[in-house]
Write a structure and sequence with these properties.
The chain folds into two domains: 17-178 and 200-230, Fumarate Reductase Cytochrome B subunit (Up-down Bundle); 250-391, Oxidoreductase, molybdopterin-binding domain (Sulfite Oxidase, Chain A, domain 2, Alpha-Beta Complex), CATH 3.90.420. By secondary structure, it is α+β, with helices and mostly antiparallel strands. Strand 1 and strand 2 form a beta hairpin. 42% of the residues lie in helices and 14% in strands. The protein is built from ten helices and ten strands. It is elongated, with a radius of gyration of 27 Å. The chain has a five-stranded mixed sheet. Strands 3, 4, 7, 8 and 9 form a five-stranded antiparallel sheet that branches. The protein starts with 16 loop residues before the first helix and ends with a strand. It binds the ligand Nc1nc2c(c(=O)[nH]1)N[C@H]1C(S)=C(S)[C@@H](COP(=O)(O)O)O[C@H]1N2 and molybdenum atom (MO).
């Protein structure tokens, strides 16, 4: 008999709550970190009134978003292992039963389907593969609340069993009361712990941790340079012209011609005060260097040595002060063609309108004639092909 087929009600097989609760706990940790880092990324991109995000340390967002993608990826094998351990229960009779049981089963249906949906669409997003019609970020955000709410219900319902299961050794064969009440007598068991030829619970638990660690290595290379070699699953790991991947090319954005227009001007406005600068004038202003990462929301990140004009110098040029948010507008019309830099980050000496990358003029795919590069923020807000800057 296969160890998985052992009677689920007894504590001899792999379906023991002792193993299921431990795998569930690992999965719960991953999902919690994934949810919190995801909320953070959402708030940075759509800041509520109370939200403040510092401009330092420069690597903070890179780290939290790396964690978001890695914990999301690791949750996939953990979820599959957990489902494999418990799936007979999903089809247990009666299908609905008492009202309490109906609620529990409905919450599990929501839990399983929303978590699978969330993790898979997130994974496809890291590969920039969108085989669906809905707008990814809105759906991903809304679905995260469903995932978390259904997990909380699930934990609340199972809490007595979880506590008993985690409170005893994983290999124990003492019966656990899985009914949630103490009234039902439990069958004692005298079966020995699994021996040769039968996979033990401890082996499954170690295997789960090993699979999770492998998934970490396979994805972490997207953002941790010395792990890059392991990153066989990472879609983009630091390859690209001028040492940085390209997220959207100039031709995909439809700016091939406008970006190369010899009459190019960068317009800077502060209320009625407006200045137009040619590329020559921008180059003639004091140039500063910033070593900053592009940290894409999709999980990859890569650091470049950028140089150009400090945002705060451009703000001062039109009489703006250090308490003003600044809006950056691209030649590319549309969703990714505009971003707002909060005042604290606009004032950071590392925030640049960059003209050069790694000592060379920016190539058009990296944002020529000039782009925004600022510390500690998502790549999607590092607007390329700037045409206009507005002091708000
Ligand atoms: N105008 C514009 N700027 C943009 C984008 C874009 O699509 N259009 N993509 C953003 C995203 S999602 C990222 S991760 C970075 C990537 O910059 P890179 O292509 O130079 O690496 O640029 C950002 N700036
Ligand atoms: Mo991105």
């Amino acid at each position: 008999m296969n160890a998985l087929d052992a009677d689920a009600d007894r504590d001899t097989g792999l379906r023991s709550p002792r193993l299921v609760a431990r795998v569930g706990m690992l999965l719960g940790i991953c999902i919690t970190v994934c949810f919190l880092t995801g909320m953070l990324s959402h708030w940075i991109q759509h800041p509520p009134g109370w939200f403040y995000w510092p401009s330092r340390p420069v690597w903070l967002y890179q780290t939290t978003q790396g964690l978001h993608v890695i914990t999301g990826v690791v949750a996939i094998p953990l979820l599959l292992i957990k489902l494999q351990l418990v799936y007979p229960k999903l089809f247990a009779r009666p299908v609905i039963g008492t009202p309490a049981r109906a609620v529990e089963r409905a919450s599990i249906a929501v839990l399983v389907s929303s978590t699978i949906f969330q993790l898979l669409t997130g994974l496809l997003n890291t590969a920039q593969w969108y085989p669906w019609k809905f707008f990814f970020t809105t759906t991903h955000y809304a679905m995260s609340f469903l995932v978390v709410a259904s997990i909380l219900v699930h934990i609340a319902v199972k809490l007595p069993i979880i506590q008993r299961a985690l409170g005893s050794p994983v290999e124990s064969t003492e019966p656990i009361d899985t009914t949630g009440t103490t009234s039902e007598p439990q069958r004692p068991t005298s079966e020995p712990a699994p021996e040769n030829g039968v996979v033990s619970r401890r082996t499954v638990l170690r295997g789960t941790i090993a699979v999770g660690s492998l998934a970490v290595l396979a994805f972490a290379g997207q953002t941790v340079p010395f792990l890059r070699w392991f990153a066989f699953l990472a879609p983009r790991s630091g390859e690209g012209p001028q040492g940085i991947p390209i997220n959207r090319t100039a031709s995909a954005a439809g700016v091939q011609e406008s970006a190369r227009n010899p009459d190019y001007r960068l317009t800077i406005s502060n209320g009625n005060v407006t200045k137009e600068l040619t590329l020559e004038q921008l180059r003639a202003m004091p140039q500063h260097d910033s070593a900053l990462p592009i940290a894409c929301v999709e999980g990859w990140s890569a650091t470049g040595r950028w140089s150009g004009v400090q945002v705060r110098n451009l703000v001062a040029l039109v009489g703006g002060d250090r308490n003003r948010d600044v809006r950056f507008i691209s030649l590319e019309a549309g969703l990714y063609g505009v971003s707002t830099l909060p005042a604290n980050t606009a004032d950071d000496p590392l925030s640049l309108v960059a003209l050069r990358l790694h000592g060379e003029q920016l190539i058009v795919d990296h944002g020529y004639p000039c782009r925004l590069i600022a510390p500690n923020r998502p790549g999607v807000l590092q607007t390329k092909w700037l045409t206009r800057i507005e002091i708000l």
